[in-house]
């Protein structure tokens, strides 16, 4: 998605450890016009009309998923919570996820009533690095008995192994921008 790539080059900031900050337009402050284009592109890439839920993980994926949901017929967005909450009740679908940027492991959970065997689920998230969040969300879908329709990622770090791992699992994975290299404070895309 050329619009996204240009925005990354213009406003993305590189930090030590190959961390790309896109907080000015994607995952802290959101450019809604760009988000709408991202939602339209996910719809184009996932034309399956049986998709009836979008699953993401808190917090950065929520805004992206919510805007994308409009282009899938305003389907519900379910997000996996990273912390136990007093308002979570009933049966829970749970797994562990290691956060690349935070360097800690989270217990993530979704109330089982929100993902069922009747659901065809599209996973949407902002970044894919090592694939831990996606693997965790896929495990939650498997626990629920729902069907995984695919995974949509806004930015994939192609120089890390997450995309390769997820694709080798046979998952339909689409990334809107795949970063091939980050060298000398320069970003190159596939």
Automatic annotation (TrEMBL):
Signal peptide: none annotated. InterPro entries: PRTase-like (IPR029057), PRTase_dom (IPR000836), Pur/Pyrimidine_PRTase (IPR050118), Xanthine_PRibTrfase (IPR010079). 5-phospho-alpha-D-ribose 1-diphosphate binds at residues 129-133. Keywords: Cytoplasm, Glycosyltransferase, Purine salvage, Transferase. GO terms for molecular function: xanthine phosphoribosyltransferase activity. Coiled coil: none annotated. Its EC number is 2.4.2.22. The keyword Repeat does not apply. Converts the preformed base xanthine, a product of nucleic acid breakdown, to xanthosine 5'-monophosphate (XMP), so it can be reused for RNA or DNA synthesis. Homodimer. Belongs to the purine/pyrimidine phosphoribosyltransferase family. Xpt subfamily. This is Xanthine phosphoribosyltransferase. The gene is xpt.
């Amino acid at each position: 998605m050329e619009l996204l790539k240009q925005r990354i080059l213009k406003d993305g900031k590189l930090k030590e450890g190959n961390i790309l900050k896109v907080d000015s337009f994607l995952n802290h402050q959101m450019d809604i016009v760009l988000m709408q284009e991202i939602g339209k592109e996910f719809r184009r890439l996932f034309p399956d009309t049986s998709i009836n839920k979008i699953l993401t993980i808190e917090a950065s994926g929520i805004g992206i998923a919510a805007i994308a949901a409009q282009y899938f017929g305003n389907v519900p967005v379910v997000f996996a919570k990273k912390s136990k909450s007093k308002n979570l009740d009933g049966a829970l679908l749970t797994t562990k996820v290691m956060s690349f940027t935070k360097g800690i492991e989270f217990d993530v959970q979704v109330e089982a009533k929100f993902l069922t065997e009747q659901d065809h689920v599209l996973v949407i998230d902002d970044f894919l690095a090592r694939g831990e969040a996606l693997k965790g969300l896929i495990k939650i879908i498997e626990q629920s008995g729902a069907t995984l329709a695919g995974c949509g990622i806004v930015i994939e770090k192609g120089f890390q192994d997450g995309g390769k791992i997820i694709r080798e699992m046979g998952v339909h994975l689409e990334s809107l921008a795949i970063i091939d290299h980050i060298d000398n404070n320069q970003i190159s895309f596939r």
